[in-house]
């Protein structure tokens, strides 16, 4: 029974995998043809003719791969994303839970939170550049903001939506307030925490890249993928711009995969869905 | 032997005296329960039947300690749960609730769910509690599912496990709020037999809310029919069908007669409730 099921899911998994591969290959072919159509026939396909073909991008990729600076951009961006994201989780989760469980805390902190929340993280860039002593700190702060609001809102919503029957059942069985918080509210909120983390992670990448471009990360902040793209733009290397963009795509994918994996490990009861 | 001692003890007598509950959402007084009195003997299966939204659950919540009462008093075994000096009963493991939609913790396996009560009460070490939980689940026919999460088993199994989770705390009273509502007839039948078997074994007092009249007669010693809102006791029908009962009981002459009797009383209230609903909407 279980073997046939896993065999089935293997085949299914492979089917999905190859479908994905085919889709990417088809996309690359379309892109290649689109880029070169202008050279071949004189017709420009929806402006794709301006975009370098994948073969050129691939060559540019091979050129940057051995370069130390390219990998330093990865390290710089990743460490900014991780710092901002982790601090946002560390502050955001307890803050969201406190908002959910304590009426007085909510009364005091929720209104200002709600006024600050709609401000896009990038609108904080000029103020934080002035306020924080270094560029690096400004970028970290803006990154943190990007994830923080999303995480808090998800944690708050998740904790408030826990079925009251769980709390009543636990209390009837003799759970203390402390126990209720750690053993019922926290695991009950975990799925929402991961939703918030996944969305927050996406936002941190957006914010980091934009902040790196704006602050010209090269001088103090030490590059980063955002600056890599900006630099390529200034240098007029179209291929390298695309290399930078794809790098960000891969980096974002790796980050969200890591969150999914962690969710998988921490929430075994969610694996069934 | 165990059965006899459990029955002889007759714990869990509930005495509901002149209980009134008025909800006050934003100044609109809604009387859910009005001067309702009921005597439930220890070890009795007491079925509460009445129209939807009539205040049955309010009564259950008052016994469980989820809600306060406005007037009257509720006692269990002569001890005051709530009354004039103490509007809200304390929640306690002597009165365990099995919820309408099920409240097994989805993040714990069936075994961990059942072991939860004794562990938080520090009545057992967590190892002992897990052993006991495994054993009790096996007795309920769930031995091969103890390591499963609630989401992995059928609703029938989950509900059985939830009753086991309540019983491990040795409650005096089991409070069930339409636990089998969403189940198909066949699953329901299995659930009824399993509950009766559990009852025969433990002799726990059962306070059971339902809309299913056949269920009420099949399971109950007494069927209390309550009126539409505000909830009052309208009629009590004694079910003198001997135990153990099996599903054949349901086709007996006696069963049919009782069903007619209950049906008549409930129908009257259902019509009243429906008309009241129409008035409110008009």
Overall description:
The complex is a heterodimer of chains A (273) and B (282). With 273 residues, chain A is mainly α. Chain A contains 10 helices and no strands. The longest helix of chain A has 40 residues, at 2-41. The mean pLDDT of chain A is 85. Chain B has 282 residues and is an alpha/beta fold. In chain B, 39% of the residues lie in helices and 22% in strands. Chain B is built from 8 helices and 10 strands. Chain B has helices at residues 2-9, 56-64, 110-120, 126-139, 155-167, 185-202, 213-219, 253-281, and strands spanning 14-23, 30-40, 45-49, 71-76, 79-82, 95-98, 173-177, 205-210, 222-226, 233-238. The termini of chain B are far apart. The interface between A and B is medium-sized, with 23 and 26 residues.
Short description:
The complex is a heterodimer of chains A (273) and B (282). Helices cover 80% and strands 0% of the residues of chain A.
Throw out a few tags for this protein.
heterodimer; A: 273 residues; mainly alpha; MetI-like fold; 2 domains; 10 helices; B: 282 residues; alpha/beta; Rossmann fold; 6-stranded mixed β-sheet; 4-stranded antiparallel β-sheet; 10 strands; globular; disordered N terminus
> Any guess at the CATH architecture of the largest domain in chain B?
3-Layer(aba) Sandwich
Q: Which structural class best describes the helix and strand composition of chain A? A: mainly alpha
Number of helices of chain B: 8
Oligomer: heterodimer
**Most extensive interface, chain pair and sizes:** A-B, 23 and 26 residues
CATH topology of the largest domain in chain B: Rossmann fold
Number of strands of chain A: 0
Q: From the 3D structure, determine the CATH topology of the largest domain in chain A.
A: MetI-like fold
Strand content of chain B: 15-25%
* DSSP strand tally of chain B: 10
């Amino acid at each position: 029974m279980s073997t046939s099921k896993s065999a089935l899911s293997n085949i299914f998994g492979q089917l999905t995998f190859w479908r994905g591969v085919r889709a990417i290959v088809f996309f690359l072919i379309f892109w290649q043809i689109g880029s070169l159509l202008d050279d071949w026939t004189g017709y420009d396909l929806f402006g794709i003719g301006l975009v370098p073909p994948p073969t050129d991008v691939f060559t540019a990729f091979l050129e940057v791969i051995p370069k130390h600076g390219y990998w330093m951009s990865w390290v710089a961006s990743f460490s900014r994303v991780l710092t901002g994201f982790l601090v946002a989780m560390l502050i955001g989760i307890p803050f969201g839970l406190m908002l959910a469980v304590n009426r007085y805390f909510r009364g005091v902190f929720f209104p200002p939170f709600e006024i600050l929340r709609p401000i896009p993280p990038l609108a904080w860039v000029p103020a934080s550049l002035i306020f924080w002593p270094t560029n690096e700190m400004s970028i970290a702060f803006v990154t943190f903001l990007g994830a923080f609001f999303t995480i808090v809102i998800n944690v708050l919503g998740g904790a408030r939506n826990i079925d009251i029957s769980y709390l009543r059942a636990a209390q009837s069985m003799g759970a203390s307030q402390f126990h209720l918080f750690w053993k019922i509210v926290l695991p009950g909120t975990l799925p929402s925490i991961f939703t918030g983390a996944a969305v927050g992670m996406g936002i941190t990448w957006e914010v980091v890249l934009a902040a790196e471009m704006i602050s010209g990360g090269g001088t103090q902040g030490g590059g980063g993928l955002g600056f890599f793209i900006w630099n390529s733009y200034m240098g007029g290397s179209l291929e390298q711009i695309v290399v930078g963009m794809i790098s960000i795509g891969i980096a974002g994918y790796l980050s969200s995969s890591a969150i999914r994996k962690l969710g998988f490990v921490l929430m075994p009861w969610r694996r069934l869905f | 032997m165990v059965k006899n001692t459990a029955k002889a003890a007759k714990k869990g007598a509930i005495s509901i005296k002149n209980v009134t509950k008025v909800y006050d959402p934003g100044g609109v007084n809604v009387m859910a329960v009005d001067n309702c009195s009921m005597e439930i003997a220890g070890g009795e299966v007491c079925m509460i039947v009445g129209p939807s939204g009539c205040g049955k659950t309010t009564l259950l919540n008052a016994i469980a300690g989820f809600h306060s009462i406005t007037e009257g008093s509720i006692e269990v075994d002569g001890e005051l749960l709530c009354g004039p000096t103490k509007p809200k009963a304390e929640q306690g493991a002597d009165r365990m609730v099995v919820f309408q939609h099920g409240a097994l913790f989805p993040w714990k396996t069936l075994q961990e769910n059942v072991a939860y009560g004794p562990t938080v009460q520090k009545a057992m070490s967590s190892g002992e509690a897990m052993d006991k939980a495994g054993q009790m689940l096996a007795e309920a026919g769930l031995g091969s599912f103890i390591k499963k999460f609630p989401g992995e088993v059928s609703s029938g199994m989950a509900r059985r496990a939830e009753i086991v989770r309540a019983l491990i705390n040795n409650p005096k009273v089991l409070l069930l709020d339409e636990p089998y509502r969403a189940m198909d007839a066949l699953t329901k039948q299995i659930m009824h037999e399993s509950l009766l078997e559990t009852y025969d074994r433990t002799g726990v007092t059962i306070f059971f809310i339902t809309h299913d009249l056949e269920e009420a007669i099949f399971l109950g010693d007494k069927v209390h029919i309550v009126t539409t809102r505000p909830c009052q006791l309208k009629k009590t029908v004694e079910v003198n069908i001997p135990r153990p009962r099996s599903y054949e009981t349901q086709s007996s002459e006696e069963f049919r007669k009782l069903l007619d009797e209950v049906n008549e009383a409930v129908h009257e209230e259902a019509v009243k409730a429906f008309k009241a609903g129409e008035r409110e909407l008009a």
